[in-house]
């Protein structure tokens, strides 16, 4: 009687000479590939699992046989996994990709990107085939970046300089408290709006043109100029990047006023000195 296991030709040992080239290719991919592969019954029980999959979850193939895949699935991912499997068997979807968590034999969480497809016999659903990639390192990096960004935003919220980030279309992505105060606008009102809309009176000014060129050409810029819209002298520093560009705005009006007072006082002293000399 012919086995209904589509992986039956795949020897658990090295391919032998009776195999066709296609069977040898399949065996090599299954036995030595870096992607975890498992064959499941329609009820979700393991029928086969390759070494990469076994390493990923910490169980041998023998230990997995007969075990339900939900028994090694993280409790938080049970419902999405069940839903996608049901849709696959019912024919609502041809395949699916999901990021989910397994519970390793030693208790740790393993993040994976799982692709599920359906195998048919005589047009009827027979087995589920899953391919799994370990993305735990990717998730750890993602979590580290989220934590780092949170800490960085806490720093930005505490500084006295106005700081914003904009996307490639110069639309606000982030606005700190000091920027709300500087522009006299609530953060929620600014997010998603275009930066240039804050400077209607300076639309044709060299100041704004320099800023626009820096964002378009992705060149760093530091410029000091008077903003008629803010009624302030601003020191602007732009640090472009491919995703988001950070911009610092510092109110230097008092500094400019002091410099002006110093120049005027010096001119008066120089004038008195010339008069006394004459």
Q: Which structural class do you get from the secondary structure elements?
A: alpha+beta
CATH domain topology of the largest domain: Beta-Lactamase
Count of individual helical segments: 9
CATH superfamily of the largest domain: PAS domain
Under the CATH scheme, which architecture of the largest domain would be assigned? Answer: 2-Layer Sandwich
Q: Within the largest sheet, what's the order of strands?
A: 2-1-5-4-3
Q: Based on CA inertia axes, which overall geometry fits?
A: rod-shaped
The H-and-E topology, N to C, reads as: HEEHHHEEEHEEHHHEEEH
What's the Cα radius of gyration? 32 Å
The CATH top-level class label of the largest domain: Alpha Beta
The portion of residues forming beta strands comes to 25-35%
Q: Count all strands and give the number.
A: 10
Largest sheet: 5 strands, antiparallel
Task: Write the topology of this structure.
Blueprint: H1 21-32, E1 36-40, E2 46-49, H2 51-57, H3 61-64, H4 78-90, E3 95-103, E4 109-121, E5 124-134, H5 136-158, E6 162-166, E7 172-175, H6 177-183, H7 187-190, H8 206-217, E8 221-227, E9 232-239, E10 245-251, H9 253-277
Antiparallel strand pairs: 1-2, 1-5, 3-4, 4-5, 6-7, 6-10, 8-9, 9-10
Describe, in plain words, how this protein is organized in 3D.
The structure is a single chain. The protein is α+β, with helices and mostly antiparallel strands. The chain folds into 2 domains: 107 residues, 2-Layer Sandwich (Beta-Lactamase), CATH 3.30.450; 100 residues, PAS domain (Beta-Lactamase). 38% of the residues lie in helices and 26% in strands. A hairpin with a 4-residue loop joins β8 and β9. It is rod-shaped and about 115 Å long. 21% of the residues are buried.
């Amino acid at each position: 009687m012919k086995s209904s296991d589509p992986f039956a030709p795949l020897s658990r040992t090295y391919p032998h000479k009776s195999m066709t080239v296609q069977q040898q290719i399949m065996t090599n991919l299954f036995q030595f590939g870096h992607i975890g592969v498992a064959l499941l019954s329609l009820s979700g029980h393991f029928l086969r699992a390759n070494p990469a999959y076994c390493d990923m979850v910490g169980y041998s193939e023998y230990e997995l046989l007969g075990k339900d895949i939900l028994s090694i699935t993280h409790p938080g991912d049970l419902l999405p996994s069940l839903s996608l499997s049901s849709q696959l068997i019912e024919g609502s979807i041809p395949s699916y990709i999901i990021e989910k968590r397994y519970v390793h034999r030693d208790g740790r969480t393993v993040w994976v990107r799982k692709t599920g497809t359906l195998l048919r016999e005589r047009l009827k659903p027979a087995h589920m085939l899953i391919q799994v990639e370990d993305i735990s390192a990717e998730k750890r990096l993602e979590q580290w970046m989220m934590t780092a960004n949170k800490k960085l935003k806490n720093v930005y919220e505490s500084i006295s300089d106005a700081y914003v980030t904009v996307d490639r279309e110069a639309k606000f992505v982030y606005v700190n408290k000091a920027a709300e105060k500087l522009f006299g606008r609530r953060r929620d009102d600014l997010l998603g709006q275009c930066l240039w809309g804050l400077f209607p009176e300076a639309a044709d000014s060299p100041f704004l043109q320099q800023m626009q060129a820096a964002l378009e050409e992705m060149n760093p810029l530091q410029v000091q100029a008077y903003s008629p819209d803010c009624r302030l002298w601003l020191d602007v520093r732009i640090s472009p990047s491919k995703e988001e560009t950070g911009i610092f705005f510092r109110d230097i009006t008092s500094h400019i006023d002091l410099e002006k007072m110093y120049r005027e006082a010096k001119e008066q002293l120089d004038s008195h000195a010339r008069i006394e000399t004459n």
